[in-house]
Design brief:
Blueprint (H helix, E strand, L loop, with lengths): L10 H14 L11 H9 L22 H5 L10
Helix pairs in contact: 1-2
Length: about 80
């Protein structure tokens, strides 16, 4: 799996995903869903998108940590083995 920070190119999709959450639930602190231009502005001013940062970062599980390891088949040893 590769994870990356959002960029301004993602604004339209993010606004479409976020709007129903704002409009249909009470889990957001927002009353009105941000439009695409507002989402672009928020993404563009986020510290991760400032000059000198690396907006595309990857995350990979270490080879010693497999899904079976996280399932906890054996809980007898240290969690940091």
């Amino acid at each position: 799996m590769i994870l990356r920070f959002a960029t301004v190119r993602d604004a339209e999709a993010l606004a479409a995903i976020y709007a129903p959450i704002v409009e249909s639930t009470m889990i957001s602190f927002e009353v009105l869903a941000p439009d695409v231009d507002e989402m672009r502005a928020r993404i563009g001013t986020h510290p991760a998108n400032k000059r000198g940062s690396s907006p595309n970062r990857t995350a990979r599980l270490p080879a010693t940590r497999t899904p079976a390891h996280f399932a906890g088949a054996s809980r007898t040893g240290s969690a940091l083995k």
